[in-house]
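ok so I'm stuck.
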Amino acid sequence: MPRGDKSAYTGKQKRKAEHIAEGYEKRGVSATTAKSRAWATVNKESGGGKKSGSGRGKKENHSSSRKGGRKGGSR
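replied:
not stuck anymore, here's the structure
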């Protein structure tokens, strides 16, 4: 699997990254930077791509989303 391959991610993670990237682009960040920041956020929240198997899941931490919402809403 080459670097940058998104096949291990769920559909929800992919949608979340797209939504986050749109928000960055609205704030004036370039498309490539927005995309990389979005995936970094998804990785931080969910711990990367999801692997199959019982007991392999971890809870998501949404602290970065809260921070982003506060930061965006403070204007």
